[in-house]
Amino acid sequence: MPESVATFTFILSVSMSAIINFIAAFYTFRRAEASEDALEAEHERSERLLLNLMPASIAARLKQRPDEIIADGLPAVTILFADIVGFTPRAARLPADRLVSFLNRIFSEFDTLAERHGLEKIKTIGDAYMVAGGLPEKQEGHARAVAEIALDMLEVTAALSRELGEEIAVRIGIHSGPAVAGVIGSRKLFYDVWGDTVNTAARMEQHGQAGRIQVSHEARQAIGDGYSFEERGMVLIKGKGRMKLHFLTGRAETADNSTSAAA
């Protein structure tokens, strides 16, 4: 074989080997890069799911100390329960997809309000929506923030009633006081709140009226000035006895403006 041919064959062989090695390395790199992207995407998805289950600060504590029992005593929180009036007969006549869509439409609006007012959605229980102020960290003005979301909930359901052409009313109850909050479960972790304050807030809703916001006297005092109230008087509440209750009827400046306009 002529020397020039042998040299060319050698160079070609080396070049082909280099090209093959480069292609293999490039393919391996791309696979590793794709795998890393997939892991990062999965991590972000897990983060989002965790933050849907609990507040960000609680999720951070759980990741830093996964074996820690998270239980916080909270000296002052405000709890709100909102229940859709007439949901049971509606559920009996609607197909499953329309029923879930109906609930999702309302609760998605409430979720937006909770975020706007810096409140923590705790959970939904059937057709009931529970939200809290003053947790997981102390929050100045938490009772006023809950009063604001309650008034906004009435406005949202009124707007949905006009849009859908059917009445949608909620019954809302609010109470303020101490509570305990923490994470329970080992597989499906869940951030929840317990205590007499929670039970009393639920009673405020259950003994309330459609389209109105019933508040305990403690919540009335915590909310303070800037809002208008209608005194309901002493009402016998299951498990609590007779309690002094009020209806939150609006923002004081709105009521004052209406009175001035009428005059």
From TrEMBL:
PROSITE patterns: GUANYLATE_CYCLASE_1 (PS00452), GUANYLATE_CYCLASE_2 (PS50125)
Gene Ontology biological process terms from the UniProt entry: cAMP biosynthetic process; intracellular signal transduction
The UniProt record lists the keyword ATP-binding: yes
Catalysed reactions, as listed in the record: ATP = 3',5'-cyclic AMP + diphosphate
Subcellular location as annotated: Membrane
Homology family: Belongs to the adenylyl cyclase class-4/guanylyl cyclase family.
Name of the protein this chain belongs to: Adenylate cyclase
